Amino acid sequence: MTNTTATKLHYDIVGSFLRPAELKAAREKFKAGEISVADLHQAEDQAIEDLVAKEKAHGLKVVTDGEFRRSWWHLDTFWGFSGVKKIERQQGYTFHDEETRAESAQVSGKVAFSSDHPDLAAYKFLHTLTVNDPEISDRQSIPAPAQLYAELIRGEKNRQAIAKYYSNEEDLVADIGQAYHDLLLALYDAGCRDVKFDDCTWGMIVDDNYWKNRIQEGFSRDELAEAYLKVNNDALVDLPEDLQVTTHVCRGNYHSTWAAAGGYAPIADYLFARENVKSFYLEYDDSRSGDFAPLAKVAAGKDVVLGLVTSKHPELEDSQTLIKRVEEASQFVPLEHLALSTQCGFASTEEGNKLTEKQQWDKIELVIDVANQIWK
């Protein structure tokens, strides 16, 4: 939320953008064997260069590559680690109105960072577009370590795969934390000073319906929350002081649908009070996220970015309503430690949400305009 070359900002984005038609076409041609991987990378490069120019033109000071090189917001990152392989499940993730593609990840060896990780290569290109521009800085978004842990223990077959390489889950947690720590240091060495962990694990375990299923599998919510907290914090140990790591929490974002519902109260003592990130980007665009009271648990001095503007639907929120909601949140977190953003990205997967590119930018302009009214 803080530009490395500017004063503190009070407006922000979560990071993913709708894929342009040209990029979608290039991906389809690549899948069909009609173009080479070099051709695909060239199409991605051009799309990202165009996006950064648009981000800057619309007033953003912290920019991303839109996650244009990814198919998924999380799985592409997982597959880039050593000891993690891509698999196909019988069923995809279940959302409120839809089911996703059935791809997933599974342990295939000891989990470790690989120097050819795709997120590192992606960041290096983004940095070439910002390094000589004093008006903007760049951010790399990656799924949280807890998200990888949650994926690897999901289902009996995955747990059987873990048992082939790990005698206990504590060692798996340690390796995931180390793999992420090494990725963070590699990004830092490449010039990155702003990394965001995207993390749906917290947004899922607050859901009572979801939790009933996990109880049937023998999980304890408190034990799972402790594991999520540990693996995230393990990745954050002994990092450079000028590397900002933040986190974003939502309850699923796929093709304008959602996966979970529930307020932050059940996990506030873990996430808000004890996770060693600098800022929390929190979904708050509708009643599924509950009220602001759990924000009282946010550790002193940390920032909260309120995701009050939905990225799921094109209708623009009322400015005065947004202002009032920020005022309500300021009862629990001081106004100077609050900011405004969209509730999630616009395309957590390559399918994207159900709105146009213009409507996407209208949402961002609304965020900036309202933030400028509040924080004059």
Automatic annotation (TrEMBL):
Entry keyword annotation includes Cell membrane: no
Originating species: Liquorilactobacillus nagelii
Pfam families xref list: Meth_synt_2
Matching Gene3D superfamilies: 3.20.20.210
Listed name of the protein: 5-methyltetrahydropteroyltriglutamate--homocysteine methyltransferase
Entries under InterPro entries matching the protein: Met_Synth_C/arc, UROD/MetE-like_sf
Domain of life the protein comes from: Bacteria
Keyword Aminoacyl-tRNA synthetase recorded: no
UniProt GO MF annotations: 5-methyltetrahydropteroyltriglutamate-homocysteine S-methyltransferase activity; zinc ion binding
Domain Cobalamin-independent methionine synthase MetE C-terminal/archaeal: 14-71, 170-350
GO biological process, one term: methylation
Keywords from the UniProt entry: Methyltransferase, Transferase
Alphabetized NCBIfam families for the sequence: PRK06520.1
